[in-house]
Structure prediction request, 275 residues.
Amino acid sequence: MLTKRSSCNVVLAVALLAGGMCLAQQPAPSPPTTPTPEASSATQAAPAPVIQAEAIDALKQMGTYLRTLTAFSVTADVTVDEVLLSGQKIQVSGENTMTVRRPDRLKGTMRKDETDIDREFYYDGKTFTIYGKNVKYYASAPAPATIAALFDAVSERFGVDIPLADLFAWSTDKSKMQDITSALHIGPARIGGVLTDHYAFRQEGLDWQVWIEQGKTRLPRKFVITTMDEEGQPQYMSVLKWNLSPAISDKTFTFVPPKDAHRIVFAGQTPVATK
Prediction:
């Protein structure tokens, strides 16, 4: 799709350039006394953005359902556009996972192909630990008492963003649904064999889409996010697979450092002993 779009842009640019060269060799035409139909349509205002109530309601229903889940695991197959200095887009894949037991247990992983990014995140209700599997370094710090408080704390204090943390923000004051300027219900679609409804949204600097499972299980099954205000308009896509009855125990969320791992310290923090 990207290749086809790029090819079309090249053909269009050549056509416009050729047309400009031909016009440059001719005398400039006298301005028309009355506007042409083309000129009239070009000056018309763009259509007003549409916000469909059913699309906004679908986001609220999804958020409400996600908050009912007390224990779950989710795997996201991720594809991200990396834009080179030349402007060329390179597509990079990866996988993020999260296992949760509310209110105070979480384990996450983040892997990115063609890079050395392979990280694990542990939270046992008292301590947060991040471990780089490839580099064999880990750091731990005291953590808040709930998952809800954890994401803001590690982001503000350490600059760490835990993958899939946005799943906890829907239908809360952190979701910033008031920033949405366009909301559309596109129609039904199947994602991994699951029947979903496809919705498209716009807000400043972002176009994004979500596919929400139909029925009572209102799970997000796919996200596509296009960053409109960055060069090349890079795109992020994730397809989500859910397990609502995972086999987990307290050990799942407790970090035990491998023998060859080395402890380091978060900036401004004192090392915290791990169990």
Notes: The radius of gyration is 24 Å. The helical segments are 2-24, 37-42, 53-68, 147-158. The longest helix spans residues 2-24.
